[in-house]
Design goal:
The complex is a heterodimer of chains A (394) and B (230). Chain A is α+β, with helices and mostly antiparallel strands and 394 residues long. Chain A has two domains: 3-53 and 263-392, no CATH class; 59-262, no CATH class. Chain A is 55% helix and 15% strand. Chain A has 15 helices and eleven strands. Chain A has helices at residues 3-10, 12-16, 18-56, 80-85, 127-131, 155-161, 189-192, 199-206, 230-241, 255-266, 270-297, 299-308, 312-349, 357-384, 387-392; strands spanning 60-65, 90-98, 104-105, 119-123, 135-138, 150-153, 168-171, 174-182, 194-198, 220-225, 249-252. In chain A, strands 1, 2, 3, 4, 5, 6, 7, 8, 9, 10 and 11 form an eleven-stranded mixed beta sheet that branches. In chain A, helix 11 runs antiparallel to helix 13 (312-349). Chain A is elongated and about 110 Å long. In chain B, 32% of the residues lie in helices and 27% in strands. Chain B starts with a strand and ends in a 5-residue tail after the last strand. Chain B has helices at 48-55, 78-88, 104-109, 119-132, 148-160, 178-193, 205-209; strands at 5-16, 22-33, 37-41, 63-68, 71-72, 89-92, 166-170, 198-202, 213-218, 221-225. Chain B is an alpha/beta fold and 230 residues long. A six-stranded mixed beta sheet of chain B has the order 6-7-8-3-9-10, sandwiched between helices. A four-stranded antiparallel beta sheet of chain B has the order 2-1-4-5, covered by helices on one side. Chain B contains seven helices and ten strands. Classes of the chains: A alpha+beta (394), B alpha/beta (230). The interface between A and B is medium-sized, with 28 and 30 residues.
């Protein structure tokens, strides 16, 4: 028999009872769809995060004060940003200083404890560019407004305060005008939760004064390196920022957090994967059940085929083939449904659609294995049926 | 009739079960030559169905020899017997056994499925076989749209399509009214006249009466044989 003949004979039962075939393939389709969708969605969300990391760049490094050897918080030297600018491989430097004692309120009437978790930070003028954000509404600080009681809010701070450009906030015991609002800065969540003011304003309005009557020292320095130089530059930052005590400087790469999140997103949801596997097993039982019934019902067909000259092996191949076809049908339908679900969800989230090959190949492969497992016993039974016994029932 | 021997039984017995054993065939011997049309006639329980199964190689005899086309089937395994059936034996059953989901042409073509004939040739030969039974105009129909007589003609076409050495017809008119049954027997005679060797198994003595040779079976033995028509 040719391959075409084998397929034709294996599909006899399916063509004779298409509704039954469809329903018994449905269980496998649901299981495969669940597995493909889970794998596809985790891969797509990972691709989405990786694309975001790509957009934000992995060449941002931050320098912060660590612990003193003698205990207590260290402080960065005020001249650290200037020195870092001169370091080879560094393209841009910005910095900010958190004013621990200053808090932000919508008005003077609000109790002091309800600061809403919003930080007050003095910021250098290059900050939005370096941390990878931009002005969403209004304007950023300039040399003039940096001296005045003017603030720009981070995205989360603006949302919490319910304020935009043109409003004013009670900051550190006096009114500040809101000049603008920044877009979210995924690499620097602290900036998102801050009300940013100029260093001169911090010094003049809020008494943030360091040595020789200048503004106080920065608490975070943001360093953009030239693309690809970040690993070369990273080990040099601590000693450059604080040559006297390099061990009191902490250097980190914010994109590492996002990379870790992307890795976590790529790890699929084992609960749903388990549910998919359960559905597959139920589907397999359904196919096995249908095959057993089918062999019993079609005894006269088996007898006729034996009389026409079918060998036991050909009868076995027919029923095994039918079971494989059923499972394959379910598997292909499931892969298509799972891929469609992934496409719809990923498109809604703005992710690139990624269906990993192991998802669809594995889905179809699992379906074929199930078909073989579910069909083997009924097929062997059909092939062992005596032709005369099979004919007598007709 | 002096064609070559296509079927030969020598002292064939068939015993079913052990306690107590049922002796369905007790030493049956006869030969059928090419071009013969013979009836095996007997009441139910006489062993004629067992005889059909043994002759059709669907069941092995307990003892004795069955030769089909000069080949002894003893010692053949299931695969070899299946191939022998595919080439040498055509079956017609009382219940027709047609596949309802497909066309008459495909049903007839399936008679060649296990003989290793390519699909295009199967269909072409099916059309010719349908012509021989007068159903060429029904080739594209489904069996469920056909009358009982037409359905049996389809089954006969399926048995003939492979040009077997012998056609075994088991109560071919059993599910048909007498007029339709008569037309089927007329077709059987016509096909025999055109060269087919046909063995009809029946309990119907009247039907057997019109055939040129009759073997009467009773209690597992051939009690009379009118012999090959001369």
């Amino acid at each position: 028999m040719t391959f075409g003949d084998r397929v034709r004979v294996a599909s006899v039962g399916l063509r004779a009872r298409p509704l039954r075939a469809g329903l018994s393939a449905l269980g496998i389709a649901i299981g495969t769809a669940a597995i493909v969708a889970v794998l596809g969605l985790s891969a797509s969300s990972q691709a989405g995060l990786l694309a975001e990391i790509d957009r934000l760049g992995t060449n941002l490094l931050t320098v912060e004060p660590g612990e003193r050897l003698t205990g207590g918080a260290a402080v960065l030297p005020a001249e650290a940003p200037g020195r870092l600018t001169l370091l080879g491989g560094v393209s841009e430097v910005a910095h900010s200083a958190r004013l621990e004692d200053a808090h932000v309120y919508r008005s003077a009437e609000i109790p002091a404890a309800e600061s809403g978790g919003i930080q007050v930070r003095a910021a250098s003028l290059g900050l939005p560019d370096v941390v990878g954000t931009e002005v969403a509404r209004g304007r950023w600080l300039n040399a003039a407004t940096a001296r005045l009681p003017v603030t720009v809010l981070g995205a989360a701070a603006a949302r919490r305060l319910g304020l935009g450009p043109g409003g004013r906030i009670w900051l550190g015991g006096r009114w500040f005008a809101v000049a603008g609002v920044l877009a979210p800065a995924p690499l620097e969540p602290d900036v998102d939760h801050s009300a940013l003011i100029g260093y001169p304003a911090a010094r003049d309005q809020l008494d943030y004064v360091g040595a020789d009557a200048q503004a106080g020292p920065p608490s975070t320095i943001y360093v953009r390196t030239q693309t690809g130089r970040e690993t070369a530059v990273q080990p040099l930052l601590a000693a450059t920022a604080n040559p006297q005590a390099p061990s009191e400087v902490r250097v980190s790469r914010p994109s590492d957090v996002l990379t870790a999140r992307a890795a976590a997103a790529g790890a699929f949801d084992s609960l749903f994967l388990g549910l998919g596997a359960v559905a597959l097993v139920v589907g397999a039982v359904g196919v096995a059940n249908i095959m057993i019934i089918s062999v019993l019902e079609r005894r006269s067909e088996i007898g006729l085929r034996r009389a026409l000259g079918a060998t036991p092996r050909q009868i076995r191949a027919q029923f095994l083939g039918e079971s494989l076809l059923l499972a394959l049908l379910g598997g292909v339908a499931g892969v298509l449904a799972g891929a469609a679900a992934t496409t719809v969800y990923a498109a809604a989230k703005g992710w690139t659609v990624v269906i990993p090959p192991e998802a669809w190949a594995g889905g179809i492969g699992a379906a074929v294995l199930i078909g073989a497992a579910a069909g083997l016993a009924p097929a062997v039974r059909a092939s062992r049926m005596s032709p005369t016994a099979a004919l007598r029932t007709g | 009739m002096s064609g070559e021997v296509v079927l030969e039984l020598a002292e064939v017995t068939k015993v079913y079960g052990e306690q107590p054993p049922v002796r369905a065939l007790r030493g049956v011997s006869f030969t059928v030559r090419r071009g013969e049309l013979a009836a095996i006639v007997g009441p139910s329980g006489s062993g004629k169905s067992t005889l059909l199964h043994v002759v059709g190689t669907l069941e092995p005899p307990t003892s004795g020899a069955v030769r089909i086309g000069g080949v002894d089937v003893a010692g053949m395994d299931d695969e070899e017997l299946s191939r022998l059936r595919a080439r040498e034996i055509g079956f017609v059953f009382q219940q027709f056994f047609l596949a309802e989901h497909t066309t008459v042409r495909e049903n007839v073509a399936d008679g060649l499925l296990y003989a290793g004939v390519p699909v295009a040739e199967r269909r072409e030969r099916a059309d010719r076989a349908l012509e021989r039974v007068g159903l060429a105009h029904r080739a594209g129909f489904r069996p469920s749209t056909l009358s009982g007589g037409e359905r049996q003609r389809v089954a006969i076409a399926r048995a003939l399509v492979g040009e077997p050495s012998i056609v075994l017809a088991d109560e071919p008119t059993g599910n048909l009214d007498s007029a339709t049954g008569a037309s089927i027997m007329a077709l059987v005679e016509e096909l025999n006249a055109a060269g087919a060797t046909i063995l009809v198994i029946t309990h119907d003595a009247d039907l057997a009466e019109r055939l040129p040779r009759r073997l009467r079976v009773l209690d597992g033995e051939v009690v009379s044989d009118t012999g090959p028509a001369s």
